């Protein structure tokens, strides 16, 4: 029998705070945050927020929804032109537009609806529309007229603050030397930070040990 004690861990949901006060500012996201949070005084009715996975797009979208009481639309099933009147002048959100083959006609009419109503639309995506396989020239023109916002690669300072926040969301406190160890070895993305914290939390529960540099070393 091994002397190592293993415990069963349960994959319980973790509540991640997504409010404006919880957003961690950095050079990588400062401009995007400033523009999103001056709603409704946007530089254009339509704003396109682009950035890699885990860069903070969903957090900024959540802030926008809270501020504007925005209606979230399904990118894979956009409203028919005849149904757009039901949206009225509501603020709108279209997340992860890069993931699906968008119905170009419906998207074109949606953009026109936003302009006619004087409302706002936030589109989040990992890639810029110029790289989407669009065939309608008028749709490309409408998207080029949107205000672009980009989220860049996070700095060490931002990654450290995000790690601290993610651990705090799980009611965990980790020593600074553990954070130092992780920062120079982890993938430089916010999504990787989330996965790393999840894995460390699970391993800590299974081993019945605190999250230390040694445990982090074993995981990595």
Description:
The chain is α/β, with parallel strands linked by helices and 220 residues long. The chain has helices at 30-36, 57-68, 104-117, 137-144, 156-169, 176-183, 190-207, 213-219, and strands at 46-50, 71-73, 92-94, 121-125, 147-150. It has a five-stranded parallel sheet. Mean pLDDT is 89; it is low at 1-15.
Number of helices: 8
Q: Estimate percent helicity.
A: 40-55%
Q: Main β-sheet, in a few words?
A: 5 strands, parallel
Task: Please give the order of strands in the largest beta sheet.
Answer: 2-3-4-1-5
SSE arrangement, N to C: HEHEEHEHEHHHH
CA distance, first residue to last residue: 26 Å
Poorly predicted parts = 1-15
- Mean model confidence by pLDDT: 89
Content-based structural category: alpha/beta
- Rg estimate, integer Å: 21 Å
SS elements, strand count:
5
Principal-axes shape call: elongated
Keywords:
alpha/beta, single chain, 5 strands, five-stranded parallel β-sheet, 220 residues, 40% helix
Describe the structure concisely.
With 220 residues, the protein is an alpha/beta fold.
Topology readout:
Layout: H1 30-36, E1 46-50, H2 57-68, E2 71-73, E3 92-94, H3 104-117, E4 121-125, H4 137-144, E5 147-150, H5 156-169, H6 176-183, H7 190-207, H8 213-219
Parallel strand pairs: 1-4, 1-5, 2-3, 3-4
Helix pairs in contact: 3-4, 5-7
């Amino acid at each position: 029998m091994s002397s190592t004690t293993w415990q069963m861990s349960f994959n319980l949901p973790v509540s991640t705070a997504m409010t404006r006060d919880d957003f961690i500012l950095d050079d990588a996201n400062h401009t995007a945050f400033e523009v999103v949070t001056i709603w409704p005084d946007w530089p254009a009715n339509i704003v396109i927020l682009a950035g890699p996975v885990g860069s903070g797009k969903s957090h900024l979208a959540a802030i926008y929804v809270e501020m504007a009481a925005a209606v979230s639309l399904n990118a894979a099933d956009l409203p028919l032109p005849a149904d757009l009147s039901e949206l009225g002048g509501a603020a709108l959100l279209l997340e992860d537009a890069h993931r699906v083959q968008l119905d170009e006609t419906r998207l074109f009419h949606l953009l026109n609806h936003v302009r006619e109503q004087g409302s706002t639309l936030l589109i989040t995506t990992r890639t810029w529309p110029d790289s989407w396989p669009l065939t309608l020239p008028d749709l490309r023109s409408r998207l080029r007229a949107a205000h672009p916002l980009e989220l860049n690669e996070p700095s060490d300072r931002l990654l450290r603050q995000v790690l601290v926040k993610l651990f705090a969301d799980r009611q965990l406190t980790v020593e600074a030397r553990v954070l130092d160890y992780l920062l120079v070895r982890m993938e430089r993305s916010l999504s990787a930070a989330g996965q790393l914290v999840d894995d460390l939390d699970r391993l800590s529960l299974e081993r019945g040990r605190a999250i230390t540099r040694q445990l982090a070393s074993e995981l990595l």
